[in-house]
Each structure stands twice: as structure tokens, then as C-alpha cells.
Here is the input.
Amino acid sequence: MLKDFKKFIMTGNVIDLAIAVILAGAVGLVVKGFVSMIMMPIIGHFAGGVDFADLKVVLDEAVLDAEGAVKTAENAIMYGEWINTIINLLIVGFVLFMIVKAYTKAKKKEEEKPVAPPAPSKEEVLLGEIRDLLKK
Here is the structure.
């Protein structure tokens, strides 16, 4: 059973999948950082200094006790976070579109390379020699 498990784990498909999952997680962190640390401040600047993450509609205010500790948390619709998520989706979609477009273009160039005609087989060469001898 241990040998079967080792054989299964060491197949190329499982290793490729593991690498893809790890890379996807890393790319996700990079994109999230790009959106939150670079794009959102720029968008907020052009939107009049608004930080979308702070935008919300408060349904119920937080209730504090006499000591100032939160007794009941605030109930709010955090639509600013949703806007951030939509912007993140658009950026990721655009980046993936550009990657697929570049991949398709590179693959198309590979396919367009003219393929040299296959060399004639031994039989064809021999038949050609016989034809040439008969012509003489």
C-alpha cells in the first residue's frame, strides 16, 4: 500500500497539480497586494480621496456599555469592500486575458512555421532510381 501511494504521489500529474496550486496561491497574494497597495490608492485619489474599504451603510449602531467596551457590534453593509472585490476581479480578469492572448499568439507562431516535407522513403527512392534508369 505504501508503494502504491508513493507511485501515485510521484506521478507527473500530481506533482504538476501541486505546483499549480502553490503558484496560484502566490499569484493570488501578489494580485491582492497590487490591488490593495497600488491600484486602490490611485483610484481613491481620483475619486476624491475616498477609501472604498471604509464605505458602508450602517443598519444598527454599535452599543457600548458604561466602560466603553462594545456590547453589541455594529451591523453594516460593507459595500466598499465589495467594490474592492469587483475591482480585484476586473484586474485579475484583464491580466488573465493578456496572458491567454500572449500564449495564443506564441502558439500560433509555432504552428505557422512551415513544416519541411518528409524525406522520401527507401521504396520511393528506389522507384525513382528505376524510373530514371528506364528513361535512359
